[in-house]
Amino acid sequence: MIAFIFTVICALASAQPQHRTAPTFEINLDKPPEQRFSVIFDPAAGFNETVWEFYNMYFANNERLKEALYHLVATRGEEVPEMQGEIRGLAMGSKLPLPFVQGIQMLYELQTVMVPIVNVSRLPKRLVSTLNYTFERETAPPEWAALSQIPWRGPGCTGIIATNTLDGTVSHARNLDFMPHRIMSRLVYTGIFTRNGTELYRSQMVAGYVQAITGMRRGPNGFGLERNTRYTDHPGGFEQALSNLKAGRLLNGWQLRQTLEACATYECALDRLSTVPYASTEYTILSGVRKGAILSRSPDYVAYKQTLGIPADTQPASYIIMTNFDFFYHDIREWFDPTGGEMFRPRRLVAQGLLNATLASGRALTPKVLFDVINAEGVLAGGNDSEGGGDGTIFQALINVELDLWNVSIPVLKHRRRDDARAAS
Ligand SMILES: *[C@@H]1O[C@H](CO)[C@@H](O)[C@H](O)[C@H]1NC(C)=O
Ligand SMILES: *[C@@H]1O[C@H](CO)[C@@H](O)[C@H](O)[C@H]1NC(C)=O
Ligand SMILES: *[C@@H]1O[C@H](CO)[C@@H](O)[C@H](O)[C@H]1NC(C)=O
Ligand SMILES: *[C@@H]1O[C@H](CO)[C@@H](O)[C@H](O)[C@H]1NC(C)=O
Ligand SMILES: *[C@@H]1O[C@H](CO)[C@@H](O)[C@H](O)[C@H]1NC(C)=O
Ligand SMILES: *[C@@H]1O[C@H](CO)[C@@H](O)[C@H](O)[C@H]1NC(C)=O
Ligand SMILES: *[C@@H]1O[C@H](CO)[C@@H](O)[C@H](O)[C@H]1NC(C)=O
């Protein structure tokens, strides 16, 4: 009964969701890698139980998936010693199988195998022929076919970098969307990575995953960093990623962490992330003091670059935006992504409509405006869980390097409210 009343009250609340905070942990880089992440086993955070829940629900009873993932891990071999040490520490602490903990480090790369949500067999034949490369999942080598059963998937994520004409500063807003939302939203935290007692960089983290997801290097010419899933842009793209993974290429997120560690400036980060090899396609979204860029990364090169201040591809000079599709190449898959609430209403276009309207009315793209845009209906993912898919925004960030702003929170989604109320009653 209490749960019912709670749900009704929340349904009547304003369109913008409430937000809760995520825990913050210091990850001390002076400690041996095996010990750095022991802080996240704090019972109050409940991460250990949640990761076990994830494992039991999706892996423990799926021998084919486990076998394929462990086979990939074995083929790949150990990660670089520092990363492997961190993985070992997490496996020892949680008592989860080591190849499982190592396997989920490929979270982003393996996602590119997924056909983004659309069940192409439901679409008209005429469209299917233009969706050509989304069939890759079917054509993946049989040995690896079970990898398409990985339980996490996007597409998710929205990133906006914009200039506020009131003070000239640049803000960066992001939604991190993931499914299964119910589990993923309970695993997020902020890691403050320290060396010699002071912060070197910070990152939004998912417990059990040691790589950076949204990061910030504070300082007079520092940078904010976001990654979004990018699907392959040509037939054979996933096999290329798979062969990079098998060959042991550094994972994308490790390259990001290394960049946060090695680079104190925006230029250093931009240069590095434009050139280092990635294991798979991905968007790299970088903001700095009065500057910003979005790199559409292929494993070996930058396929496309958007630069704040240079109007192009239906974006004015004052902002750049990215969700999960090469819209500048008219990637048709964007239209079939229902995560904003429905198909044929891409999150990017909803966000651009709001940004454009703000500009048209003579108002500036302030941090507050950006925060409202990423929380708007149609941009925030997962307001609608009626199909039980459980995709949703699990973490948000609002970064302004010049103002030293790092504002992270978790939106309390509608279907979560019901769960939360149930848990509380
Ligand atoms: C995590 O959970 C597992 C399974 O319940 C348990 O064996 C292990 O000791 C737990 N780890 C910590 C640090 O509490
Ligand atoms: C896709 O749709 C077809 C036809 O409606 C159905 O038979 C098939 O089971 C669906 N596949 C998935 C993975 O949902
Ligand atoms: C469709 O796939 C074929 C064979 O893989 C390829 O040659 C062709 O370029 C693809 N077309 C598009 C539009 O991607
Ligand atoms: C570490 O901090 C101490 C005290 O603040 C300082 O004296 C020392 O130079 C620092 N070492 C490094 C390597 O930065
Ligand atoms: C937003 O404005 C740009 C021009 O500044 C335009 O090219 C684009 O089509 C607009 N998009 C939407 C969704 O309004
Ligand atoms: C939620 O999803 C269902 C099924 O896809 C759809 O019928 C319904 O209109 C959606 N509701 C909203 C508010 O988007
Ligand atoms: C920072 O996030 C909170 C949600 O936790 C939000 O209420 C607040 O308005 C945000 N700050 C700014 C400057 O937008």
UniProtKB/TrEMBL annotation:
EC numbers for this chain: 3.5.1.23
EC category: hydrolase
Keyword Signal in annotation: yes
GO MF terms held by the record: N-acylsphingosine amidohydrolase activity
Signal peptide: 1-15
UniProt keyword list: Signal
PANTHER family in the cross-refs: ACID AMIDASE (PTHR28583), ACID CERAMIDASE (PTHR28583:SF1)
Protein name stated in the entry: ceramidase
Species for this entry: Chrysochromulina tobinii
